Amino acid sequence: MKTRLFHAVILLCCSVFFCCASGPAARNKLDKNRSAAAAALNEMSGGVSSPAADVSPASKPEIKKGKNGKPNWINNSGSAYRKEFYLSAVGYGKNPMQAEQNALGNLIAVFGQTVQSSVQAVETYKRDVESGAITISNSVSAEQAVKSSSTMDALFGAEIGDRWDDGKTFYAVAVMDKAKCRQIYSDLFNANTKLIKTVLGSSQNKTSIETVARYYYASKLDAVNAVFKTILTVLGANGFNTETTGGGYKFAAWETAQNIPINIVVSGDNTGKIKSAFIAALAKEGFKTGDSSARYTLRVKFSLETVDLQNINKWARYAIDAQLTDNNSGLVLQTFTENGREGHINQTEANNRAVLGAAEKIKDEYPASLEDYFSGL
Question: Among candidates 322, 332, 328, 333, which has minimal Cα distance to 374?
């Protein structure tokens, strides 16, 4: 062990001397040797180096300006922000904010379609962290990176590195320090994984909606982790354990729902179409229809009224008010309210259209309403 420690120290000292006596190429070698030496020292002391984060600091940006003051990063961001240390992208616009938004958008595009299409999920995750619904227990710096990111920035740890304008067009360069962001995203991934285990670790009642909600919550975190996995890969986090289920938790929620009957009681539904719509909507989430002995009841009030809009058509307005109740506790778990109107030259046909419109809205929107409820528990 002493021999290896001695070699590590010698390696670091020789690298420093070599760098002082040489140019930029030597400094690149120094960065690599620093990493090797630090890893060796860390191993000697009993520590375990993380593959998601480098020990070598990022090189400082090498921003150069031409005769007109135009910085070199505008035409080639990599000339100022070296690719081995940074991810960078340039944006421009008619004002500073537009330039920064475009720069951040172009930086997101570097990570591909998976991240681009998941911006909303990441923004929801950010709001949950800000509200305290999700706690990043293992890293204060990672939690701060999430909270301090701007509303237009779905990449935690991204920054506007520099700005410039020629009086007409504004430019900005968005930058991610690879080493720092690898640490941020690995901490976030680990925190989410730990939270998933905690949420699913307690005893599971296979006939309880709470269990369905637990799986949906885990599914939401798992989907965010899938985005973080892509980001970590692009950032170069080789060897980091980034397993995700690819929708497995949501399927587990659906399977659990198969064991949970829900009694549906509807008032004001003369045609039976409203109850049928709720049966279809619940079945989409895995739930079966139960009778009065079921633990859960969905109570629905449906109303239809004539509306005079002072035109040639006749109109009918519908209103839906649904409450999912736990009969054991008497608590209302979730509510769903919708309304709308339909018209026709004949009042009877207007009424029929209103009922059909209400039924379609239930089938289209109630499943998503349930999923939002489950994910938010």
Answer: 333
Give bridge partners of residue 261 from the DSSP assignment. 288
Rounded CA-CA distance 282/298 in Å is 10
Q: What are phi and psi of 132, to 5 degrees?
A: 90, 0
Which DSSP string do the residues of 202-270 spell out, in sequence order? SPP-TT-HHHHHHHHHHHHHHHHHHHHHHHHHHTT-TT------SSHHHHHHHHHHTT-EEEEEEES-S
User: What percent of the residues of the chain are helix, what percent strand, and what percent coil, each to the nearest 5?
Assistant: 50, 20, 30
pLDDT digits (tens, 9 = 90+) for 151-208: 445 688 899 999 999 999 999 999 999 999 999 999 889 888 888 888 888 657 888 9
- For residue 271, the 8-state DSSP code is S
How much is the pTM?
0.70
SS3 for 168-212, per residue?
Answer: CCEEEEEEEEHHHHHHHHHHHHHHHHHHHHHHHHCCCCCCCHHHH
Contacts of 360 (CB under 8 A, 6+ apart): 277
SS3 27: helix
Pick the CATH number of 260-372 from 3.30.160.150, 3.40.50.2000, 3.30.470.20, 3.40.50.2300: 3.30.160.150
Q: Quick count: other Cβ atoms within 10 Å of Cβ 293?
A: 8
- For residue 71, the SS3 value is strand
The number of beta carbons lying within 10 Å of the beta carbon of residue 328 is 9
Which residue, chain included where needed, has tokens 């719509």?
Answer: 277
